[in-house]
Amino acid sequence: MSVLIAPAPSLSSRPTSAYPVAPLSVAAHDVDSLLRSGAVAIDIRSQQERDRDGIVLGALAIPAEQILDRLIPGSGETLRRADASSRWLLIGVDGHDAEMLTWHLQAAGVPGARFVAGGQMALARSADRRPVAGHTEREWSMFSAH
Hints:
By secondary structure, this protein is of the alpha/beta class. Helices cover about 35% and strands about 10% of the residues.
């Protein structure tokens, strides 16, 4: 009787399969508290979708096809503030587009990545219509005070 031993898989810098290390999604009604606690909103919709449906106030606009290069630490295109402790909140059209990207971010060592379930459509339907980022709200307060 012989035993077959498979060769050890090569390790790649970006895993192709892994279990999520943290919850992937957040509800639209939880977005405000997450942003106030330091998460950064990332609008992954295309420019055409933002033109059609409106912008997400206070969010960084990074197209979906650039997300992994911009938010995973260590690539040549990584944002300066991107590291393993970053807390990204991805906002897509309906949430489905952001789910896979969030999974890839977590698998690549960014456990603080989440996506908004229902995406921008859910945010638009939510009762809370304030800007999604604290800095935007502060800026609006300054302008309205003058």
